[in-house]
Amino acid sequence: MSQRAMWVVGNWKQNHLPEAALTTARAIADGLAGANGGVHRVHVGVAPPYLSIAAARTACRPISDLWLFAQDVAAQDAGAHTGEVGPAMIAQAGCAGSIVGHSERRADFGDTDALVRRKLHATLGAGLHAILCVGERLEARDAGTHESVVISQLSAALSDLPLELVTARLILAYEPVWAIGTGRTATPEQAASMHRCIRGWLAERWSAAGADRSILYGGSVKPDNAGALVAAGDIDGFLVGGASLEAPSLLAIVRATASAPSHTP
Ligand code: PEP
Question: Does any domain span residue 263?
């Protein structure tokens, strides 16, 4: 796979009990199987709640193009950590990796920059994909400090990561907090500009190899705005919340993403 692949990943959050997860994942997998060639250059995944991962996985068998992710992951593999699910466990459950540092985890569950860093290192170190979420709050956007906020989150999570882990299975997601679940999307220019800033920061540290990462946008992405966002350039797909809960809207976002000019060889 090219380092800089196109992705659309649905974050189901605290939605979809096993039966609904199975039905929805099956409808997405069937939609992908029946789709035309262009759609197949987009990697499509869903992140069900832990309880529903096994059900969603049955929809992916025996062969499917649908990837499974966890929504969060512990920083350690095992031990006396009540309520935690670690990298080895999500791998065993069939996940290719996990979202790490989602703004809801940061705001509501005490995921500090330091904890996000530990989760990220544990996930990549276990050979899994990590979708690292970064993004500023509205106050920072209004104050014009959005780039420095995002760079400080990147720096805290990634600074001492060896190049081989950066280039292994790291995916980034720029998710402005003010756009998540609000119906207010970043404009294509705002999103593309932040993606260029993130890529520039990666290039400064790890040169071209480190900058060749997929950077997804997330924040009220819907079938009717995905095409314009991805056409802005430097946006390698989406992390999608609300619009990923129903197969038709997630598949429509995948088709819109597939229609973008290819960034990859
Ligand atoms: C998210 O939570 O990652 C997200 C992007 O949510 P929504 O698409 O609902 O804004």
Answer: no
